[in-house]
Design a protein that fits this description.
CATH class: Alpha Beta
CATH architecture: Alpha-Beta Barrel
Number of strands: 8
Strand order of the largest sheet: 1-2-3-4-5-6-7-8
CATH topology: TIM Barrel
Order of helices and strands: HEHEHEHEHHHEHHEHHEHEH
Radius of gyration: 18 Å
Number of domains: 1
Structural class: alpha/beta
Bound molecules: 3-hydroxypyruvic acid, magnesium ion
Shape: globular
Strand content: 5-15%
């Protein structure tokens, strides 16, 4: 059973410990989620948009992270709101939804992820009840505040509509996707997630989130970028995908071995 019955969304909103660092996993292997959960990540994200998780492997991934006593969030594919409520049923602590471009998109996301009166999430959280150790009535009363619904802002349209998106009741915060946003802002000319245009967009988004009292998250390609984001005041950051971390670790081990052998 998880130790995170009431914790994650509160910790995220209070920006405890100077902000949350999340693991980001696209390789659809629950055992990989188990291993990474042992590191000092505050939460684990399973990426179903560009990663290869299906519903069964994701539900098993959720269970492996829960086993480590940690919260777990799923990023759904674009507009796959039906999967959002299934993942919450499986015990996810939150949903990140890509390409939310308008208040209407945000309302559709809330409809699937929050019970009335905020939304129309349908009942059936059997695995979530098991993971959280909550009775059904308790879960119904608490689920809307226990889980986080995060809208990705990663287009020019979304940036222009950021106040309307943040004003939707049930949206707990936004997540900046710097790669897609850089492609959108350059009209397809550039992939530049670390550029002045993105930094400017993030500063603007941060100010708007603070004005609405909502959370701001962003994808950082590595630890250095994640550190900059935390210093700026972001609430949840990614410090690189697991593939990048795995390959960087392998590279360092090989370089070190060669250096010692040849030195
Ligand atoms: C982006 O940078 O566009 C993302 O969606 C992060 O994965
Ligand atoms: Mg994206």
């Amino acid at each position: 059973m998880t130790t995170d019955i009431d914790g994650f969304s509160g910790r995220l909103k209070r920006r405890e410990n100077g902000g949350v660092i999340a693991a980001w996993i696209g390789i659809p292997d629950p055992m990989l989620a188990n291993h990474l959960s042992q590191e000092a990540f505050d939460v684990v994200v399973l990426d179903m948009q560009h990663g290869m998780w299906d519903m069964t492997s994701a539900a098993n991934g959720v269970a492996q992270v829960r086993l480590a006593g940690k919260p777990v969030i799923a990023r759904i594919p674009v507009a796959d709101f039906a999967s959002a409520s299934r993942l919450l049923d499986a015990g996810a602590s939150g949903i990140i939804a890509p390409m939310i471009n308008s208040a209407d998109d945000a309302r559709a996301l809330v409809k699937a992820t929050k019970y009335p009166p905020l939304g129309e999430r349908s009942w059936g959280p059997s695995l979530a009840l098991n993971h959280l150790g909550l009775a059904a009535e308790d879960y119904l009363q608490r689920a809307n505040s226990l889980t986080v619904t995060i809208a990705m802002v990663e287009t020019r349209t979304a940036l222009d509509a950021i106040d309307e998106i943040l004003a939707v009741d049930g949206i707990d915060g936004i997540f900046i996707g710097p790669s897609d946003l850089s492609i959108a802002l350059s009209n397809g000319a550039r992939l530049a997630p670390e550029s002045p245009a993105i930094d400017q967009a993030i500063s603007h988004a941060l100010a708007r989130c603070r004005a609405h009292g909502k959370v701001i998250c962003a994808f950082g390609g590595d630890g250095a970028r994640a550190g900059q984001f935390l210093k700026l005041g972001l609430d949840l950051v990614i410090a690189g995908a697991e593939t990048a971390q795995l390959r960087a670790g392998a590279r360092t081990a090989i370089d070190t071995a060669r250096k010692i052998a040849n030195g």
